[in-house]
Amino acid sequence: MPTFVIIMKAKKIIRAVLALLVLALVAGCLYLNSLMPIITGYAAKNLASAVFVSGRQQADVEPLDLNFSFIKFVKNKVDYDAKTVSSRFLWAKSTAAYRDGYGVTLLRGKGRKAFLGQQYPLPPAVDVPEYLQAGDSALTARLEPIARALVDERAYNGHPFAFVVLHNGGIVAERYDKGIDASTQLLSWSMAKSFLHALVGIMVRDSLIDVYAPMDIPQWQGDGRRDITLNDLLQMQSGLEWNENYGNRSDVNLMLHRETDMGLFALSKPLEYEPGTHYYYSSGNSNIAMRYLRGKFASDKEFLAYIRHRLFAPLAIDGAHFEPDMSGTPVASSYLYVTARDFARFGQMYLSDGMANQERVLPEGWAAYAATPASGSEGLYGSGFWLNHSQRFPDVPRDMYSCQGHDGQQVFIIPSCQLVVVLLGYSPKPDRVVDFNRLLKDIIGQL
Question: Of 147, 229, 280, 378, which shows the fewest CB atoms inside 10 Å?
Answer without folding.
Answer: 378
